[in-house]
Amino acid sequence: MTQLCDKMIDFFMNTKPKTKDWRKLLSHRDDWKKYKDNFYNRCRVRIDTENDASFKQKLVLLARKIKKIDDEVERHMELFKEVQENPLDIDAVVARRRKDFTGDFFQHLNVLADTYRSLEKQDAIIRLGAKCLSAVRAYDCTLENLDSMETAQSKFDDILNSASLEEACSKITSLAKPKELDSSLILLINHAWAAAKESTTMKNEVKEIMYQIYKATQKSLRIISPPEIRLLKHLLNIEDPDERFAALANSFTLEDDAEPSKDPDALCTTPEKLHKWIKIMLDAYHLNKEETDLIEARKLGDPMIIQRLIILKQTLEEDYLKRHVDEEGEKAKEGEEAEEGEETEG
Q1: What's the CA gap between 168 and 170, in Å, rounded?
Q2: Which of 83, 137, 216, 266 could cross-link to 169 by cystine, CB 3.0-4.6 Å?
């Protein structure tokens, strides 16, 4: 074990001295955990017995940096596993752990995906990361609108003050129409259920009430048909790809007009809203297209239509939502460059 740990020290120090390579290796947690304690112990022994002051300092810096990255990767992997195990409750996870969804976390997902040769595994991680990023964006946008939050809180208080669970669920159903069961209210309900779920002091009866309210909200969210659904039907029925993407761009242009169209049937929205509904439809279709409450998802039986929907989602993420992704990635890149700078100085 001593020889192996010495080889690992040499590997980190000379063969692969960049932190981005360390992150790839440490992302394989099961393998790393077999040797990490012995590795750190060997570093301490080498530091205590080293006579060369310069090399001793290099060993100290190496052990310190490895430990720092090790702790970061551990936190990121713990969060990754949570969202991986709860793909349908990512909004609730974000509501409870927003501060953990940092640029470093999304950079970690990119590093993790690169460690796999399987394109299927890479794609699964990338798709999960996109879902997390979308949920984070929706969460942040909602918090920016305090008026919306106050209105949502009032609605939520009214639901909680219901005389019975049946009445509470009935109120949610009555709100299931555009601009009533909005993202702010959904955020509060997700947050409340997440907090109840993790609580060790809350009574099970209260947890059950919060769970039923949460499930009623999810069901209502799937049965409403907002303008985005009508827009998607229109886009998916356009055969020519160029015409489809032109119509997509035009729908956003209408939303940005100084004087919005007075036509109630005008097909216009924002990239964020349309992206959210594409996600809902794809999730409903892939989860259980026969039993889903979203009628439109049950109608997506044609593989060609599904492919068009996926391409629309990718187009939104790459051409319209990319700015937010770039901001997160740039922050992570700056942190990576800072680390590399420290290595050079070391």
Answers
A1: 5
A2: 216
